[in-house]
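Check these lines:
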Amino acid sequence: MQRTEERAEEAEAVDADGTAGDGTAAGWPRWWPLLFLGAATVPGAVLYFGGRWMETPAMQAWRTVCLAVTVQALPFLLLGTALSGAINAFVPARVFSRVLPRRPVLAVPVAGVAGVVLPGCECASVPVANSLIGRGVTPAAAFAFLLSAPSINPVVLTATAVAFPGHPAVVAARLLASLGTAAVMGWLWLWRGRAEWLRPVVRHSGHQVGGSRWREFRVGFQHDFLHAGGFLVVGAMAAATFNVAVPRSVLDVFSGSPWLSVLFLAGLAIVLAVCSEADAFVAASLSGFSPVSRLAFMVVGPMVDLKLIALQAGTFGRAFAVRFSAATVVVAVLSSALIGGALL
């Protein structure tokens, strides 16, 4: 009886227009008008001020650099993932055992020299190296190929000759320093590398008896491209952030010291993430730096940059990417200093 009376009183508290006696809608809290007001104004404010912020010169430069790095590398990423899928689906495993020497120590320099056949950038070499490992190639040889392919292929060497007209020694120095770095890193992996550092991505591997080779190619290509493409975008965003955040005046501080200029341009190559087909023109524009430091820029860049580190981490694992990239930078800088000091 008491509950019935309470319900009757609640019903009387609701007006004929559906509002409670205190003016709020039945079943809604008192602050519901503020909720709707916020829902109507906050998104508009975010779009307005966010849009104005995105149109600032700094953000326009960020978008330009990020898009340029991504678009510049995307065709070669497509090339690399297509080649990776083709190797995975069409090339028998016995081919690699016949082409490469059986002894890993000899297979490393052969794989490094074989990098000349792939006219692509570092984005293309990562999925190809992963596919080679999946096909039974020793990781040391695959890593030598990974480092040499974007550095000594004909497209890169031709671009270097065009960027430095009348200076064939620059082309020769880049070829020797890059090939030497790739071979040393391959041998270093044989000496100090550990299997637990290398955790390749589980992927479609090899031709299956009775299966369609074209379907295997499509599956492998789709997996590698989608996987590597995400890390490419992350690396491009990091490179764009550095370009916007660091003032250009910093370049002048390091150009006067021979060793500091080498280290600085090596670090600059890592964060700028310029495609190997275009980095020679960037190096040529840095006329205030010594020839050796510009050589270090061209040798380090195709082997270690932000997008490449991200691609390696996503393909082979973070433990591998951190150790391998750090060692590659040291070897590449020393190789550039030795070869450049002798030839330039």
